[in-house]
């Protein structure tokens, strides 16, 4: 089995953070999003990975090669971002001979038993019930879980089962045929070639695809979801930092994940804070936030914040002598 990881998107909903940092490398609970995906798939025996890269792809390539040298990795550049189906079609030469493929989009974290998915006799599409399916690809299923129809961002959804971004495909030749057919005939949805259109062609031609519900789905494409995911994972065993070194005149409110070689002084950090490596924090209060590597944070109060790598933030320090019955508001008008 081969894994295909499309990571060519620009992450526009997380700008300006993603102007210089690809979304899959944003840290959540102490590790980049893409590491959750690679670790889960490698744990069930997958060793061959194909990464479809584009925007800032050289950073993803460098990270994977440095941190996963034991895996067999291939990097394919999607020159034109024409949708998820087009991204996978771009890499077809490297997986069309595989017995099975596992497609996992690089901005999602899921809780699911991947061993059960690998052992499932049919192709599987990961799904999760959502309150507003109009923003997602949607699967319409029979009572037995057989997928009858998939549609990308339907205006009037007939199902509340969103596609969460991972797919185990056993009919590899049928997938390649569907991708080729749609692109050769310029069959687009909203100007792009989504994977859902190719999956629908496979269904129409007799492929059996089954919905596989996930326990949890963290779609890390928006700031608020990113921070919520960070907090949820830090609350779990195994993600937060243990045995932290003493920090100068500071209070650490667990759970937090603090990288190596960090300096924290005269500050309160936590709860639910992820801090990268080599970061300097002084005279600050930080909670419910993600801070990148080599950042410098001084004299500020941060909450519900995402701060990128190599960022410097310095606030205002006030010395006050205030009499009775006084109200002072430093907030912006």
Task: Provide a brief overview of the structure.
By secondary structure, the chain is an alpha/beta fold. It has helices at 33-43, 57-67, 84-90, 114-119, 172-184, 195-204, 223-234, and strands spanning 2-7, 27-28, 31-32, 48-53, 72-77, 101-104, 108-111, 123-129, 137-141, 147-152, 161-169, 209-213, 216-219, 251-252, 256-258, 263-265, 268-269, 273-275, 280-282, 285-287, 289-291, 296-298, 301-303, 306-307, 312-314.
Would you give an account of this structure?
With 333 residues, this protein is an alpha/beta fold. It has 2 domains: 231 residues, Spore Coat Polysaccharide Biosynthesis Protein SpsA, Chain A; 72 residues, 3 Solenoid (UDP N-Acetylglucosamine Acyltransferase, domain 1). Helix 2 links the parallel strand 4 and strand 5. Helix 3 packs across helix 5, helix 3 packs across helix 6 and helix 5 crosses helix 6. The radius of gyration is 22 Å and the shape is elongated. The model has no long low-confidence stretch (mean pLDDT 91).
Report the end-to-end length measured between terminal Cα atoms.
Answer: 58 Å
Gyration radius (Cα, Å) is: 22 Å
- Number of domains in the coordinates? 2
Under CATH, the topology of the largest domain can be stated as Spore Coat Polysaccharide Biosynthesis Protein SpsA, Chain A
The second-level CATH architecture of the largest domain is: Alpha-Beta Complex
Beta-strand level of the residues, as a percent range? 25-35%
């Amino acid at each position: 089995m081969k894994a295909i990881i499309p990571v060519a998107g620009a992450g526009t909903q997380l700008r300006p953070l993603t102007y210089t940092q690809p979304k899959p490398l944003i840290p959540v609970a102490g590790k980049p999003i893409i590491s959750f995906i690679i670790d889960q798939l490698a744990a069930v025996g997958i060793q061959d990975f194909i990464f479809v890269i584009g925007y800032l792809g050289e950073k993803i390539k460098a990270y994977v090669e440095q941190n996963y040298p034991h895996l067999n990795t291939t990097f394919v550049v999607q020159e034109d971002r024409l949708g998820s189906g087009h991204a996978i079609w771009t890499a077809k030469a490297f997986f069309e001979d595989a017995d099975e493929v596992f497609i996992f989009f690089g901005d999602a974290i899921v809780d699911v038993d991947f061993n059960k998915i690998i052992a499932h006799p049919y192709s599987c599409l990961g799904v999760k019930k959502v309150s507003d399916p109009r923003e997602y690809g949607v699967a319409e299923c029979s009572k037995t879980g057989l997928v009858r129809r998939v549609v990308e961002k339907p205006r009037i959804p007939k199902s509340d089962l969103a596609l969460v971004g991972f797919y185990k495909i056993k009919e590899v030749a049928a997938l390649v045929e569907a991708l080729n057919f749609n692109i050769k005939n310029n069959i687009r949805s909203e100007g792009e070639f989504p994977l859902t259109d190719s999956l629908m062609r496979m269904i129409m031609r007799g492929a059996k695809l089954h919905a596989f519900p996930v326990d949890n789905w963290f779609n890390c494409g928006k700031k608020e979801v990113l921070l919520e995911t960070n907090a949820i994972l830090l609350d779990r065993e195994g993600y937060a930092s243990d045995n932290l070194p003493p920090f100068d005149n500071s209070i650490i409110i667990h759970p937090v994940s603090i990288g190596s070689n960090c300096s924290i002084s005269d500050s309160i950090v936590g709860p639910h804070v992820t801090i990268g490596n080599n970061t300097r924090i002084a005279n600050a209060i930080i909670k419910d936030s993600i801070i990148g590597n080599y950042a410098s944070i001084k004299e500020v109060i941060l909450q519900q914040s995402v701060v990128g790598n190599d960022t410097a933030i310095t606030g205002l320090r006030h010395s006050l002598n205030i009499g009775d019955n006084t109200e002072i508001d430093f907030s912006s008008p």
